[in-house]
Amino acid sequence: NNDFLRNTVHRHEPPVTAQPIQILVDNDEMVVVDKPSSLPVHPCGRFRHNTVIFILGKEHNLKELHTIHRLDRMTSGVLMFAKTAEVSKRIDEQVRQRQLEKEYVCRVLGEFPENEVTCEEPILVVSYKVGVCRVDSKGKSCKTVFQRLSYNGKTSVVKCFPDTGRTHQIRVHLQFLGYPIVNDPIYNLDAWGPSKGKGGEINKTDEELLKALVEEHRSKQSLSILDISEEDLKPIVGSKECDSSGCCTEPVEIMPRAVDSCRTDDSKSQREAEILAASQNSDTRLETHEANPEGAKEKDPLCEDCKIVRQDPSPKELVMYLHALRYKGAEFEYSSKMPDWALEDWDES
């Protein structure tokens, strides 16, 4: 019929740091990099181009890499890739047998104890969509050992040795101990209550906690930290969606990104979606009003389709003080230099 059909997708990736990816090792078997904070390992959520895998392929011609392990998007440090399936399988077996030694460093609030501290509290995933965990007896077993390196009167630099690899394990255990990471965008928020989750004291249901976390980030215009867009706030999980033509499709349930996580049931996913949806309209109105106080359709200079000017985060907002310092296996050991914020003479101002 000579009809011309065009489908335009208007998508913005959340901002990431401009810090380059430093290649630590590039040999016949492995590629090891020092991953900057705020950069996800592989495409997920709204991230496509701003990922370690994509940048290594485009800028360094390192393609078809096999992911051996993952780091949280906001965690920096040693990240390993295998160049062949055989190498990947060999190291993966070491990971499963817990033969891999992992060493992290972080900066936490308060005076961390001088003696070695071990935390073995089980961790439960509260929400895969928002990316939140907490200590719970129904969670998965895990163990982290902590050693203080320094204290400057306000914050402490702590080395962390996770024996297991649960989602957000180090961050959740530090929160439980009462020493959350200084700039943790999830586990050092007022949404957790007066004690900020110390000792597992939250005094909120999971639904109330999720709503409080979303509202706190929405008020700060920082939903992108949670990797949530306005589209994600729609209650699509557990119900059918119908378009203008009357065609209905089954929604796709958002599944966990971490290998070591467990599935949620449909009713829990539905509640999460409803909680997120409750803030959608107010969030949209707030962003539009602040960007265009006079009601003018002001456009983003970098996007001819946008009518909303989004404020870029500061470099400090794209860094979390948690760094993978060293990974050691049966036949290898890779490490990065200590980050500036972990140095004893670091100026917090």
From TrEMBL:
Transferase listed as a keyword: no
EC number assigned by the record: 5.4.99.-
SUPFAM superfamilies: Pseudouridine synthase
Active site positions, chain numbering: 72
Span of domain Pseudouridine synthase RsuA/RluA-like: 30-175
A biological process term (GO) from this entry: mRNA processing
Pfam families for this protein: PseudoU_synth_2 (PF00849)
Xref: PROSITE patterns: PSI_RLU
InterPro entries, per database record: PsdUridine_synth_cat_dom_sf, PsdUridine_synth_RluA-like_CS, PsdUridine_synth_RluC/D, PsdUridine_synth_RsuA/RluA, RluA_PseudoU_synthase
Basic and acidic residues composition bias: residue spans: 284-299
Gene3D superfamilies, per database record: Pseudouridine synthase
UniProt region (Disordered), positions on chain: 277-299
Keywords: Isomerase, mRNA processing, Phosphoprotein
CDD domains for this protein: PseudoU_synth_ScRIB2
Swiss-Prot/TrEMBL catalytic activity: a uridine in RNA = a pseudouridine in RNA; a uridine in mRNA = a pseudouridine in mRNA
GO MF term list: pseudouridine synthase activity; RNA binding
Protein biosynthesis listed as a keyword: no
Lineage top rank: taxon: Eukaryota
Family, per entry: Belongs to the pseudouridine synthase RluA family.
Function: Pseudouridine synthase that catalyzes pseudouridylation of mRNAs. Responsible for synthesis of pseudouridine from uracil.
Protein name, as recorded: Pseudouridine synthase
Species name: Pelodiscus sinensis (Chinese softshell turtle)
Upper classification of the organism: Eukaryota, Metazoa, Chordata, Craniata, Vertebrata
Gene expressing this chain: RPUSD2
